[in-house]
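Teaching note: in complex prediction, the entire set of molecules is handled at once rather than each chain in isolation. The prompt given to students was simply: 'Predict the structure of this complex.' The entities are:
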Amino acid sequence: MSPAFPFPWSASLLSRLEKHLAAELFHRDAAHDLGHILRVARLAQRLAKAEGADPEVCVAAALLHDLVYRPKNHPESPLTAQLAAALVPLWCAETAGLEGHARAVAAAVATHSWSGGGTPGSLEAAVVQDADRLEALGAIGVARVFATGASFGAGLWHPLDPWGTARELDDKAWSLDHFERKLLKLAVGMKTNTGRELARSRQRAMLAYLEALRAELSGKD
Amino acid sequence: MLNRSNANHSLASRIGAAETEKTNTGRELARSRQRAMLAYLEALRAELGADR
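The expected output is the structure of the full assembly:
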């Protein structure tokens, strides 16, 4: 499968990225692997085209957005966007064709993450943030939330109170709690019109999954 | 463009798990759960295909 990004620098950047991922200190969970990075980049390309953003900046930033990985229970996990952004100028300087985009790409990487809490300062940064958040929604998001939870030892859901009706939600302990704690809040925070539209569609898929799960867990299927 | 209806029919035929249940109630529940699973797979297929 070829990711087929139409930029002169994309093949060399991807090749370098693959080597970087293979040599990392921390083993990435299945939700933050190369497949995730490529899907975010394809979404960023799609959103850039629809929104009139610079596609090179959007795709480069999407490819580099998870350059630094820490497991979700690692103390540096909320800092990974900033750590990745700090590496971007060097990566751009060493990638022929990307030298002039370093500042814009680094800015988009710096503000993409939910836990980092950054606010996008450009259309390109908004596109990259939306693209990454769309990956947390829909059928893909369902697969990823359980994969991430499993990576740090969270259970699927509380065995006696899966929907948290009589307890505090705890998404460190139960992956299902993460839907209400974070995932179902993402659609309203989308920064672009195209992102909002796609988020609504993906949220419907996610809600259909939750409805099926609720029926099965309550013995009403 | 994928024909989703054909794709799901083919997937359902390949899975076929619902028809191997030994009791009527088991078969009925399995069909219902298979429908939920196929709806999920249809959404996943759309998402994975849409950004190509």
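Point out the following to students. The CA atoms of residues 64 and 109 of chain A lie 7 Å apart. The interface with chain B takes residues 39, 42-43, 45-46, 138-140, 142-143, 202, 205, 208-209, 212, 215-216, 221 of chain A (CB under 8 Å).
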